[in-house]
Specification:
Length: about 425
C-alpha cells in the first residue's frame, strides 16, 4: 500500500468560473487532507470542457500522490468527469447493475420514476471501487494509476462530506504514514497586520528553527488579525508541546490585544466573559444598523447574556428611545463621544442590562466632513459605575467600515470586562 503525502484538488464545473458559485468543497477537502498530514500542493477550478479537465488531470498525476476531483458526476450531458478520467487512465466504462438498481430505488422511495439519463451515473471505470453516496444518486469512485490514487467525488457539498468521511478518510488515514498536522489559532484585535508582524516575526522565525519546527501564517481581515500555527509529524505530544510554547510566546508579546488562543470568535469570548460575571448586554447601533446584534445572536445561547438592541439610525430615535439629550446632538453632532456615551447609557437603562454599547459613525460613501471624514466611528461602552469611549478613523468602503466598527465594539466590551 503506497503512502500518500501530497495531493491536488480539481473542482469541475463551469458554474464555478462565474461570480455566482463558490468552490467550498476545496476548502473542506484541504482542511481534511491537511489534518491527515497530506500536503495539498495545488487547487484548480476547471470548466466542463473535457480537454481542459484531461490536461489538468495529467499535470496533477505527474506531481501528486493523490488527485481528488469534485463535480461532473451528474446525469446531464455536460457531466463528463468519469468519462474524461477513464479516457486519461485508459480504462473502459462498465455499467454496474447494482448501482442502476440503487439509483432506481432511490427515485422510487420518493414516488418517482428514474429518468433514463441517470443510468450514466452507474457507469464505473474498470477496476474502480464504488464509494456509496447516502445523500445523492452519484457515487464516488476510487481508482489507482501507477501508484497514484484518483478519487472522484460529486459536486454538492453535503454529498462530498458524507462520502469523504465514511469511505475516503479511513483509507487515507491508513496511507498517511502516521504523520499528522496539528494547528492552533491565535486571534488579535486592535492592531494592524504590519504591527502584529513587527512584534511576531522574531518569535515565529525562531519557532521555525526548533525541533519540531512550527510554521506561522498571518491572516488579516477587517478589524482582526489571526496567527495560524502548524506543525506536522508523528510525535503528537512533542508537536502539541511545541505549539503550546509558540502560542504562549506570541500571546505574551501581543498582549493585551490577543483575545483568543483557541480560535474562538470575539463574540464567543465576550459571551463567556459576560456569563462568568452573570451580566447581560444591550446595544444601541446607528451606522452599523444591527450588525453588532446580528453577530451576537449568531452565537447559540446568546439570549443568556444579550438582552437586545436598538437601531437608532435617526436622531429622533436616539433622543426618544435612548434618552440622548437633544442638546448633545445639537451641540456635538450625532457622531461624537458625548452622543456615543449617552447611547450606551440609554440602551443599558432602557433594556435593563448590566452593560450597554453605543455605536455611531459615518460609514460612507457620503456624509463625511473635514472634521468627521468617512470612516469616523465612535464606540462607547457603559456600566453602572464606568464608561469607556473611543473615536476611530477606519478605512475602506461602507461594508468594511461597518465590520471594523463591530469588531472594535466587541473588543472594547472585552477590555472593559477584564
Amino acid at each position: 500500500m503506497t503512502d500518500v503525502r501530497t495531493a491536488e484538488i480539481i473542482a469541475v464545473g463551469t458554474e464555478l468560473l462565474t461570480p455566482f458559485r463558490l468552490d467550498t468543497n476545496s476548502l473542506y477537502l484541504t482542511e481534511q487532507l491537511n489534518s491527515l498530514g497530506i500536503d495539498v500542493r495545488s487547487k484548480t477550478v476547471v470548466g466542463d470542457e473535457p480537454a481542459d479537465l484531461a490536461d489538468r488531470l495529467r499535470q496533477a498525476l505527474a506531481r501528486a500522490d493523490l488527485v481528488v476531483t469534485t463535480g461532473g458526476l451528474g446525469p446531464t450531458s455536460d457531466d463528463l468527469t468519469r468519462e474524461t478520467v477513464a479516457d486519461v487512465l485508459g480504462l473502459r466504462l462498465i455499467e454496474d447493475p447494482a448501482l442502476v438498481e440503487s439509483i432506481r430505488t432511490r427515485f422510487e422511495r420518493r414516488g418517482l420514476r428514474m429518468p433514463e439519463a441517470n443510468r450514466k451515473q452507474a457507469a464505473v471505470p474498470a477496476g474502480a471501487r464504488v464509494l456509496p453516496n447516502p445523500n445523492g444518486t452519484a457515487p464516488g469512485l476510487w481508482l489507482t494509476a501507477d501508484e497514484r490514487v484518483v478519487i472522484l467525488l460529486p459536486g454538492p457539498p453535503r454529498e462530498v462530506r458524507a462520502i469523504f468521511e465514511a469511505a475516503v478518510q479511513p483509507e487515507l488515514d491508513a496511507r498517511a504514514s502516521g504523520r499528522r498536522v496539528w494547528r492552533r489559532v491565535l486571534k488579535v484585535a486592535g492592531r494592524s497586520e504590519s504591527h502584529v508582524e513587527e512584534i511576531a516575526e522574531p518569535i515565529y522565525s525562531k519557532l521555525l528553527t526548533e525541533d519540531p519546527p512550527v510554521q506561522t501564517t498571518i491572516l488579516a481581515s477587517p478589524g482582526q488579525v489571526e496567527l495560524h500555527l502548524s506543525a506536522r509529524g508523528a510525535d503528537g505530544p512533542a508537536i502539541q508541546s511545541a505549539l503550546d510554547r509558540g502560542v504562549t510566546a506570541l500571546a505574551t508579546a501581543l498582549a493585551p490585544a490577543v483575545f483568543s488562543v483557541d480560535g474562538s470568535s470575539l463574540e464567543v469570548v465576550v459571551g463567556r466573559m459576560l456569563l462568568e460575571r452573570g451580566w447581560r448586554m444591550a446595544a444601541a447601533e446607528s451606522c452599523t444598523g444591527g450588525l453588532f446584534g446580528g453577530r451576537i445572536t449568531d452565537v447559540a445561547g446568546s439570549s443568556a447574556w444579550f438582552t437586545g438592541g436598538v437601531v437608532a439610525y435617526d436622531n429622533r430615535v436616539k433622543v426618544e428611545l435612548l434618552d440622548v439629550p437633544a442638546e448633545l446632538v445639537a451641540t456635538h453632532g450625532a457622531v461624537s463621544e458625548p452622543v456615543g456615551q449617552a447611547m450606551a447609557h440609554g440602551v443599558r437603562a432602557r433594556l435593563g442590562a448590566d452593560i450597554g454599547v453605543g455605536i455611531t459613525g459615518v460609514a460612507g460613501p457620503d456624509g463625511g466632513t473635514a472634521e468627521k471624514p468617512v470612516g469616523t466611528v465612535v464606540i462607547a461602552v457603559a456600566t453602572a459605575e464606568s464608561s469607556h469611549v473611543r473615536t476611530l478613523r477606519l478605512v475602506g468602503d461602507r461594508p468594511m467600515v461597518r465590520v471594523q466598527a463591530v469588531n472594535a465594539a466587541l473588543d472594547l466590551v472585552r477590555r472593559a470586562l477584564q
